[in-house]
Each structure stands twice: as structure tokens, then as C-alpha cells.
Design a protein that fits this description.
The protein is α/β, with parallel strands linked by helices and 276 residues long. The chain is built from nine helices and nine strands.
Length: 276
């Protein structure tokens, strides 16, 4: 397994000429959700690159950049076990420290996380654009837990004609329904139990879904209101493509989205709403 911080080394790396290259971008602290992306890339591609980079551009003032979970030795062991071919671990000082250029996507990033975390998505899309440019993959894999991020990256790739297929993969959950996240490590046992309200709220929205966005939204918010120790940033029902809030009846598909703070930990989750 190639492990490199060097842009030139990863750009020129093609061990299986003629076969597709898959990229799995991560910020490390890998869990089963990340590894499901690697497994999907492994199944479809001749070679797989995983990047491990805690991106400072996507953290705002007062957010958890300094305390964000990091475990590069453990991550490398997990990636060896999955058969990853290369791991790209760029250094901040050479990858993002002196940028005068950013890539931003309007529209799909305006609300939800974009409104709650100004500048977040420009940081995400700038670094993802750099990773796609440097690695040059045929396919790149992202989890649906960060659904708005996935929508922004798809739009960026479309608008800039970047020759890569963006593959969205289903959310991986613990047995109790909590969506896997590196930030779950911040939760105490009591907070983790409270955090289950997010997935309970999404299940309530899905159970109530008949195409009526207002009803599904109300069901979700009612579950969240009943939870102690939870501060909700947003809980909404949105169009899967534009991320605009939906209202009224007659919708066939939508996405229920939620973000909330449990103690000091901010968590996000979502699920598809589909008739039938």
C-alpha cells in the first residue's frame, strides 16, 4: 500500500493501467461507514485511493478543528485490511495553507448546513476539487449522511465538467439506528441515548410519509421536541435535488434532514421519503 503526502507521487500513480481508479475522500477517524465506501470502490475499480485529510477550510470559528478525532496509525491499519492500494495524506502547509482560490457552489448550499455554518461548503468543495484534480479518479465515493455535501459535489462536478462519476452510498448505522459519525466519539453514554432522537424523528417522518411534506415535517419535529438535552438547528423536508424546503401534498420523493446539538456535539442525519 502506497502511503504518501506528495502530490506528484499520487498524481503519477497508476498501478493497474487501463482499469478504473476509485477515490474515497475522508477526514480520518475511520469507522464502518467509511469502510463501506472503500468496499464499494474495491468492488468496482482496479485501484483504490483513500485520502485522509482533516480539512481546515471547512471548519468555522469556534468549531472543533483542533479536537476533531485523529488516528492516522489506526486508519492505515484498517485500510490495509480492506486492500486499499494507496493512501494520500496531504499536509496542510502544502495543500491548503496558501490558497487564494476557492470553489463555491450556489443554490444547493444556501440553506441547512450552509446557513448554519457559513463558509463550510466552500471549504469542502475547494478541497474536493483539489483531490479530484490531483488524483484524477474515474469514480469518487461519498456517503449520503452528508447529503447536502453530496449534492454540492455533484453540482460542482457537473458545472465544471470534471470527468469523474460521483457515487453516493447509503448511510451506515449502528444496530440502534444512530448514524455512524467520527463525531460520535464525543458523546457520553447518556448523550448517545439522547442522540437516538434524530433517527427516531426521521423514522417518524418516513412512517408518516404519504407525499405530504407538512405532515412529515410536523411528525419529525414532534419527536425532537420530546427529547431532553437536544438543541435542534433544523428539521425539514426538502427536495432531493435542489435542497429547497417542500410544502403541501402530492410529492412522490423527498429527503427528511435534521441537525441538532447533543451536549457539545453537533450531529446531522437524513433519510429518503418515498411513497411505497
Amino acid at each position: 500500500m502506497l502511503i504518501t503526502t506528495d502530490i506528484a507521487a499520487i498524481r503519477g500513480w497508476r498501478p493497474n493501467a487501463g482499469q478504473p481508479v476509485g477515490l474515497v475522500p475522508t477526514m480520518g477517524a475511520l469507522h464502518a461507514g467509511h469502510l463501506s465506501l472503500v468496499e464499494a470502490a474495491r468492488a468496482a475499480c482496479g485501484s483504490v485511493v483513500t485520502s485522509v485529510f482533516v480539512n481546515p477550510l471547512q471548519f468555522g470559528p469556534g468549531e472543533d478543528l483542533d479536537s476533531y478525532p485523529r488516528d492516522l496509525p489506526g486508519d492505515l491499519e484498517r485500510l490495509r485490511d480492506t486492500g486499499v492500494d494507496a493512501v494520500f495524506t496531504p499536509r496542510v502547509e502544502t495543500f491548503t495553507a496558501k490558497l487564494l482560490t476557492t470553489v463555491s457552489v450556489a443554490g444547493v448550499t444556501d440553506g441547512l448546513e450552509g446557513a448554519a455554518r457559513p463558509g463550510h461548503f466552500a471549504g469542502v468543495t475547494t478541497v474536493v476539487a483539489k483531490l479530484l484534480h490531483v488524483v484524477g479518479p474515474d469514480l469518487a465515493y461519498f456517503g449520503e449522511k452528508d447529503f447536502q455535501q453530496l449534492a454540492a459535489i455533484r453540482r460542482m462536478v457537473r458545472d465544471l465538467d470534471i470527468p469523474v462519476e460521483i457515487v453516493g452510498m447509503p448511510i451506515v448505522r449502528d444496530a440502534d439506528g444512530l448514524a455512524l459519525s467520527s463525531r460520535n466519539a464525543y458523546l457520553s453514554d447518556a448523550e448517545r441515548l439522547r442522540a437516538l432522537r434524530l433517527s427516531h424523528a426521521l423514522r417518524a417522518a418516513a412512517g408518516a410519509w404519504t407525499g405530504d411534506a407538512d405532515r412529515a415535517r410536523a411528525e419529525m419535529r414532534a419527536v425532537l421536541r420530546d427529547g431532553e438535552g437536544i438543541v435542534v438547528d433544523y428539521a425539514d423536508v426538502v427536495d432531493e435535488h435542489t435542497l429547497a424546503a417542500l410544502s403541501g401534498d402530492g410529492h412522490t420523493r423527498a429527503r427528511a434532514v435534521v441537525a441538532a446539538r447533543v451536549g457539545r456535539t453537533r450531529l446531522i442525519d437524513n433519510c429518503r421519503l418515498e411513497v411505497g
